[in-house]
Amino acid sequence: MEEGQPPRAKWHGPVVLFVSIVVCGLLAFAWLLPSGATTADPDPTVPPPVVVTPAVPVQKDPPPEPTPPPLPPEGHMPSGGVPGANVVGVDCSAVPCVALTFDDGPSTYRSALLDQLKALNVHVTFFDLGQSVAARPELLARSVAEGHAVGGHSWRHGDMVKAGPQAACEDANRTRNAIKDASGVDSPLVRPPYGAWDDAVLAACTGMTFVLWDVDTMDWATHDGAKVTDHVLNDSRPGSIILMHDTVSEDIAALPGIVAGLKERGYTLVTVPQLWAAPLETGRAVFNGPRATKN
Ligand code: NI
């Protein structure tokens, strides 16, 4: 035993052994713990875990339902499927009637023309170009919805005689289909551009009626509302079909005077199909309706 050293206690040995075992055990336990489990700081060498957010389906508005073309107002669709007839119960074989018609639309003036016709409570007949119907289908749909009659005027104002029967009728059918697509109306009415038609073309265009005119306002040439009004009031007879143009804006301002003048002279204004009591026969050309006796 060395000098100055306290004597070792008898319990010293077992305690040291016990403490050593405990310390070793704790060290081994710490070593076995997974890396990072004992620290709050992330290991900069380990990329952060990718957080996968559960896919939430993007709510999209359902595709809009296709809008069906508006149906003609009640009572506007006669037998034969030609709109514009029976708007008023009138027998044009007994009462003097005339039909205003507008060619070459639907142009950009159609809306204003429809507004004017609505204000005057008059229904007319439009002979429209297929290419313009395809470009402005909403104007055709509105025309039909407001009780006007419609027919075709070729796809792009082609001369049916020059085109020949087969090409002319294919063109007429293409236009008819465009009108049907835009308005839901399958119209057999055709106005040959320039009034150019012959028996061969008419015979080839099965299921169609050619509608010509007996009063030419020459509106496209004069663009003069007063002259147009004079033509209408001086030239019309019972059953007249009056040629005007959707593309002549001066007609719109002249319409109140035209309508008032016709009514003063005892005429009832109707659409082309309304001129006849029965649906128009196909395979024929007409220039006017019945010539009722005028008082
Ligand atoms: Ni024309």
Lay out the secondary structure.
Layout: H1 12-32, E1 97-105, H2 110-120, E2 125-128, H3 130-135, H4 137-145, E3 149-152, H5 160-163, H6 165-183, E4 189-190, H7 199-204, E5 209-211, E6 215-216, H8 219-222, H9 225-235, E7 240-245, H10 250-264, E8 268-270, E9 285-286
The structure holds nickel (II) ion.
Nickel (II) ion (NI) binds next to strand 1.
CATH superfamily of one domain: Glycoside hydrolase/deacetylase
**Helix vs. strand class:** alpha/beta
Give the CA-based shape. Answer: globular
* CATH structural architecture of one domain: Alpha-Beta Barrel
Low-confidence stretches: 1-7, 27-87
Q: What does the largest sheet look like?
A: 6 strands, parallel
Mean pLDDT: 81
Count of runs of 4 or more consecutive helical residues:
10
Q: Roughly how many Å is the radius of gyration?
A: 43 Å
Q: Which distinct ligands sit in these coordinates?
A: nickel (II) ion
Determine the fraction of residues in helical runs and give it as a percent range: 25-40%
Number of strands: 9
